[in-house]
Amino acid sequence: MTRKTLATIKLASLKANLHALQAKAPSSKTLAVVKADAYGNGAIEVARYIEADVDMFAVAIVDEALALRKVGIHAPILVLQGPHESSELSYTFSHNLHWMMHNQQQIEWLSNSNNCDENWGAHLWWKFDTGMHRLGFAIEDFHALLKKHAKYINQHSVIATHLACADENDTAHTTQQIDRFLEQVAQASMPLSIANSAGTIAHHNARQAYNRLGIALYGSSPFEADNTQMTLLPVMSLSAHIIALRSIPTGDSVGYGATWVAARPSIIATVAIGYADGYPRHAPIGTPAICRQQRISLVGRVSMDMLTFDVTDAEAVKIGDKVELWGEQLAINEVAEWAGTIGYELMTRVSARVPRHYEYGPEPASKKER
Predict the structure, then answer these.
(1) Which residue of 25, 63, 242, 289 shows the fewest CB atoms closer than 10 Å?
(2) What is the 3-state secondary structure (H, E, C) of 9-52?
(3) 270: which strand partners?
(4) How far from each other are the two terminal CA atoms of the chain, in whole angstroms?
(5) How does 55-67 read in b/e, with b if 16+ C-beta sit within 10 Å?
(6) Distances from the Cα of 38 to the Cαs of 160, 161, 183, 265, 340, in angstroms?
(7) How do beta strands 236-248 and 266-271 pair?
(8) Alpha-carbon distance 304 to 255, whole Å?
(9) Active site amino acids
(10) Whole-angstrom distance, CA of residue 279 vs CA of residue 274
(11) Torsion of CA 325, 327, 328, 333, to 10 degrees
(12) Contact predicate 252/235, CB 8 Å
C-alpha cells in the first residue's frame, strides 16, 4: 500500500462501548447489529472479536448472514428484513438463522413449507408497527395474529417493534410507541425487543428481553443533538496524508468551479482522499479536519480522489503529514452536521478502496451471564 489513506478500526474501543451499553440493561440479551459490513467497520472482524460477548448478531439480508457463516461465526443471526423469497427459509436450521417476520406473504411461505412446525417459533421474530410505518404488522392485529398462527408464534418467538424518534430530545412519539406496544403484548408472556441504540441509552421502558445495538457500538452517538447521555469511544478513524502544499496569492481560487477564493495569501494542502473513498462530496467549505492536533478547514469542492484544506494558520505542516477526517480527535457527527447528513451515512459509505487497519485489544473474555 503506497497511498496512506486508511480507516483505523479500534476493536478494543468497540468492546468497551458494547460493555457500557450492556451495563445500561444488565437483564437484557444483546443483538450486535453488523449489517452493512458492520456499518463500514468490517463485519467479519467485528463479529469475530465480540462473538463471545453477545447473544446474537443481526444483519439486514440473508447474504450478510451467509458471509458470516462462511468464515466460522457460530452465534445465532437475525435477518432483520426477513426472507425475501421462500427459498431463503431453507437456511433456517442449517445455518441457525432467525427471521424478522413482517408481512402476510412471509407467513404464506411458512405455511407452504413441508417441515414447518412449532419448532420454527424459536427462529421467528414478529415485527409490529407502532408508528414507524415502514415494516411490520399493525400492532392492533397482534392478538388476532397470535390466535391464527399459534403454530409459528409461540412462547419462544420474539415480539418486536422499531422506534422512529428515539434519537430525538422530544420523547413524546417514542413514549407513545412504547406504550402502544406494551399495552397490546402485556398478557402474551413472550420475549420482547424494542430498543435500538438510542432506546437502550435513553428509554428504560424500551429495554426488554433483547436490545438491538447498532451505531452506538461503533462509537457514534445516535442522538440528533449529540448530548452527553453517554460517553462512547470512537471506533473508526478515517485519515489520509498531505501530498502537496502550495502558496497562492490573494484573489486566486481553489478547486472545481472556483468556489473558494483566497481573501489573503494562503497555503493550501492537498490531501489524498475524495468522494470515491466515501468522503461526502457535498461537504461545504469550512468542514473541519485535524492535522498535527490543529483544526484545518476544507476549501474548494470535494474531488473524486482529493481534498484541499487551508493550512495557512497551522504550524509546521508538511507534505506527508496525516490528516484525520474524523475519529478520535474529531467526532464523526460534527463532520456529518457540516455535510448535512448523519454519522451513519458517513461511516457506511467509506469505500472498499480504503484499507481497514484493525487494532486489537485484549482477547475476548468468556461470555458473561446477564
Answers:
(1) 63
(2) EEHHHHHHHHHHHHHHCCCCEEEEECHHHHHCCCHHHHHHHHHH
(3) 244, 308
(4) 43
(5) bbbbbebbebbeb
(6) 21, 21, 33, 44, 23
(7) antiparallel
(8) 12
(9) 35, 256
(10) 5
(11) 100
(12) no
CA distance linking residue 120 with residue 124, whole number of Å: 7
Measured CA distances, 363 to 51, 52, 366 (Å): 11, 10, 10
pTM summary value: 0.94
CB 358 within 8 A of CB 12: no
Helix (H) or strand (E) run with residue 179 in it: helix 172-185
**For cell 455535510, what's the residue?**
339
Name the β-bridge partners of 228: none
- The dihedrals phi and psi of 366, each to the nearest 5 degrees, come to -65, 150
Instruction: Please give the grid coordinates belonging to residue 248.
Output: 497562492
- The packing angle between helices 62-70 and 43-50, to 10°, is 60
Residue 74, all three cell numbers: 457460530
- 303: Cα separation from own chain's centroid: 26
Q: How many whole angstroms separate alpha carbon 282 and alpha carbon 202?
A: 32
Q: Is the dihedral of CA 353, 359, 364, 370 positive or negative?
A: negative
The candidate with the shortest Cα–Cα distance to 221, out of 234, 208, 203, 211, is: 234
